[in-house]
Amino acid sequence: MKKLVTLILGVLVALSLFTVSGSPVQAAEPDDDCSCHELSPITGAERNKIVAKFISSEEFKTQKAQLLAAGYKWNGAHTIEVVLPAEDVIMVGVPFTNEEGAAFMYVFINGTFVGATPLE
Question: Which of 63, 43, 52, 53 is nearest to 116 (CA)?
């Protein structure tokens, strides 16, 4: 009798898994008011003004001198990327290439060096 009850309850559980439509667990909807996907590099005269001010800063000159002494190469100001991720925040990316040819983006936020990341 005990085996029969176990068998019947097992069949009921199995049938309920296949006959119940939908899933009680739903994926969260994406947050549409996020502006993080709208980042794009600044171009034109605005970019040129920011880059001119940036490459004359002591923070950049110091970092550039250290990298050039370590064997890195810089392709010039035309390769610098400028992004404005938020109000009063200027993010500048400067690509450098090491001796093996691997490219790295050195990132400065509001003129302060924050780190480097490899480019693909």
Answer: 63
DSSP helix, strand, coil percent of the chain (3-state; round to 5): 40, 25, 35
Task: Give the tens place of pLDDT for each residue, 57-68.
Answer: 999 999 999 999
Instruction: Encode pLDDT of 16-35 as tens digits.
Output: 766 766 655 565 666 566 65
Question: Could you say which DSSP state residue 78 is in?
Answer: G
Structure tokens, 52: 């001119």
Supply the mean pLDDT for the chain.
84
Q: What are the structure tokens assigned to 34, written together?
A: 């996020």
Nearest one of 34, 42, 22 to 84, comparing CA atoms: 42
Q: Can you tell me the distance from the alpha carbon of 52 to that of 5, in angstroms, rounded to the nearest whole number? A: 81
Q: State how far the alpha carbon of 77 is from the alpha carbons of 22, 48, 71, 82, in Å.
A: 56, 9, 18, 11
- Please say if the pLDDT value at position 109 is more than 70: yes
For 12, left (φ over 0), alpha (ψ -120 to 50), or beta? alpha
